[in-house]
Amino acid sequence: IISMYEEMGVSKDRVLIKLPATWEGILAAEVLEKEGIQCNLTLIFSFVQAVACAQRGAHLISPFPGRVLDWYKVKEGRAAGVESPDDDEGVILCRKIYNYYKKFGHDTICMPASWRPSRGAGFDLDEIQGLAGSDRMTIPAPLLEKLEENMDALPRVLDPESAMNCDEEVVGDGMLDEKEFRYLLNMDGCGTDKLAEGLRAFIAETDKLEEVIVNKVRSS
């Protein structure tokens, strides 16, 4: 893929390879990053995934606070939202990741995506506001429009200086091995369930794409 882009005059520093944050995906990213190929590790639903990505030098991760909230709502049978974004498990996870990265000097970019209203219908901006100050965010156009229309104050919640004073402790002596990674991921119900769900969705879409390509080749 990189060679194909370079033949078209697109240098590899403009390419971002998207990989699932499984153990194998994280190790693949480590190899690519050492070759100067930047990677986006996606399907982040647990703290251990985020830590392992940073320890192995990933350029960027995409945690999904909304999908984390979905999982906890189903698990705990919550029909209503939480009282505030501070109680939203997805927001809590992303704040924990941000603080850990800043405190221990990881350059990996934390870019949350996939949003839900923490407090329920009518509070669509809750998670975005609760993570104000994140390195980057993936925000769909409808929510960008809501942000533009919203005249409320938008105080910064996350910042590097405050992160240095958080109570996070280094994980895996600074470099998780496979055994510890798999153990900690298995102990995280949300991380395990949502990662597997995301992988199944990726595989299903890949199968569809392959079918389209095969049909086009056969008909040409």
| Number of helices, where a helix is a run of at least 4 consecutive DSSP H or I residues | 10
Runs in which pLDDT lies below 50 for 5 or more consecutive residues are none
Q: Please tell me what the overall shape is.
A: globular
Strand content: 5-15%
What number is the mean pLDDT?
A: 97
Element pattern in H and E: HEHEHEHHEHHHHH
For the termini, the CA-CA separation is 24 Å
Our Rg estimate from Cα atoms comes to: 19 Å
Order of strands across the biggest sheet? 1-2-3-4
Helix content: 40-55%
**How many strand elements?**
4
Largest sheet: 4 strands, parallel
- What structural class should be given to the helix and strand makeup? alpha/beta
Could you walk me through the main structural features you see in this protein, from its secondary elements to its overall organization?
- By secondary structure, the chain is α/β, with parallel strands linked by helices.
- It contains ten helices and four strands; from the N terminus they run H-E-H-E-H-E-H-H-E-H-H-H-H-H.
- The protein has helices at 2-7, 23-34, 47-55, 65-76, 89-103, 126-130, 141-149, 160-163, 178-186, 189-219, and strands spanning 16-20, 38-44, 60-63, 109-110.
- A four-stranded parallel beta sheet has the order 1-2-3-4.
- Helix 3 (47-55) packs parallel to helix 5 and helix 4 crosses helix 5 (89-103).
- The protein is globular and about 55 Å long.
